[in-house]
Specification:
This protein is α+β, with helices and mostly antiparallel strands. It has helices spanning about 5-25, 35-45, 150-240, 330-335; strands at about 50-60, 65-75, 80-85, 90-100, 105-115, 120, 125-130, 145, 245-250, 255-265, 270-275, 280-290, 310-315, 340, 345-350, 360-365. The chain folds into 3 domains: about 5-150, no CATH class; about 155-240; about 240-365, Lipocalin (Beta Barrel). The chain has 4 helices and 16 strands.
């Protein structure tokens, strides 16, 4: 053999050897069949048993392989699926057999495997084809699920129909009862409405009668008030006629002095009177009812509730500088209003000073008592005036 021929033969042998070596390395490696079979058996539901398995490894990496498999499984009991739901009370579920016990079923799927040295790790097998035909065992459905055509299914449907009839009768009875209650309620409301109207009419009549009584009572009171005012006005007119004299006391604090009040003129219910201290010509002043204020129309209540129908104010006057030395000089020299009311025997009242303090006046009528004799005045307060003791000194 020539040298050239030797080289050619060696080259061919190397190519063949390399090809054989490459073919050996491309042969897919797979986990042991028993390991794949155990993994699949563990992932199957308990009502299926694994009979046999065929494997097809597909390399996915240097140390990884996807193992496709075809498994033959057998149901341990009849497997069912829902045929239909029958609405009612209760709802009945009818089942039908999809796999009889002992029937061979083919499953297809795959499992991912990874190798570390001589150890294989398998992921959970994935079943892609065939599982939907399994169904479920009888115990997987609720108590109201029955196999179609069985005696218990027929009994359940019969009971459901009976329940529906009972419910319909109960529904109709309820409707009739509600209708009776509705009519009874309408009748009761009508009676109550009639009663309410009768009460309102009675109340209206009673209110109208009460209003009429109150109106009549107001008229009587107005008439009585007008009569009383007329009588009181007449009494005041008589008590303040020109020439009518009153005498008594005027008091300021602990000091007391004599006072005489003589009415001098009465015209259109405007009256004039002269107030004086007997024996003292300096202590004299003319008072007059304010123009426009008729007797009995000046009914302003004082702070203590008193009413003084006669309210007179001083008119004019001389220089009273000398009078101010006397306790009662201010009464005669200043413009303090004189407020009086009738008593059983005369007049009483006050003259309040703007700066504080007031003069208290109690007078008895001189001579014959007028028509008011013996009548009690509702505005009179206190006892009848008493005369000044003759031995009591009087301030100058």
């Amino acid at each position: 053999m020539t040298t050239q021929t030797h080289h050619i033969v060696c080259s061919i042998l190397c190519v063949v050897a390399f090809a054989l070596t490459g073919c050996s390395k491309n042969t897919p490696q797979a986990p042991p069949k028993d390991q794949v079979q155990d993994a699949l058996r563990a992932s199957l539901p308990p009502f299926l048993s694994l009979d046999s398995i065929e494997l097809e490894p597909v390399p996915t990496g240097p140390e990884a392989v996807k193992v496709n498999f075809k498994a033959i499984v057998t149901p341990k009991e009849d497997l069912y699926q829902v045929e239909r739901e029958v609405e009612g009370t209760p709802t009945v579920t009818l089942l039908t057999v999809v796999q009889a016990a002992g029937t061979k079923v083919s499953l297809y799927g795959s499992v991912e495997a990874h190798r570390t040295m001589d150890q294989w790790t398998l992921e959970s097998p994935q079943i892609q084809v065939g599982r939907e035909q399994f169904g479920a065992p009888r115990g997987a459905f609720d108590a109201q699920s029955y196999v179609t055509g069985t005696n218990e299914a027929n009994a359940a449907l019969k009971q459901q129909a009976a329940n529906a009839e009972l419910q319909e009768r109960a529904r109709k009875a309820g409707l009739e009862q509600r209708e009776r209650e509705r009519k009874a309620l309408l009748e009761q409301q009508a009676r109550e409405e009639q009663t309410r109207k009768e009460r309102e009419e009675q109340a209206r009549i009673a209110l109208e009668e009460q209003r009429k009584k109150e109106e009549e009572q107001r008229k009587r009171e107005d008439e009585q008030r007008q009569q009383e005012e007329a009588a009181a006005r007449q009494e005041l007119i008589l008590a303040t006629r020109p020439g009518t004299r009153y005498s008594g006391t005027i008091t300021y604090g602990d000091e007391r002095s004599r006072l005489r009040l003589v009415f001098t003129e009465q015209k259109d219910f405007v009256i004039y009177a002269e107030a004086s201290e007997p024996g003292n010509t300096k202590h004299k002043r003319i008072f007059a009812q304010v123009l426009g204020e008729e007797l009995l129309f000046n009914q302003i209540r004082e702070r203590d509730g008193s009413i003084y129908p006669i309210v007179m104010r001083p008119l004019g006057g001389e220089n009273t500088g000398l009078w101010l030395a006397s306790t009662f000089g201010g009464f005669y020299g200043h413009t303090y209003p004189l407020k009086l009311r009738l008593t059983d025997t005369g007049l009483e009242g006050e003259s309040e000073k703007p700066a504080g303090g007031k003069y208290t006046i109690r007078l008895q009528r001189e001579g014959k008592i007028g028509p008011h004799e013996g009548k009690k005045s509702t505005t009179t307060k206190g006892d009848a005036p008493s005369p000044i003791p003759p031995d009591r000194p009087r301030r100058p």
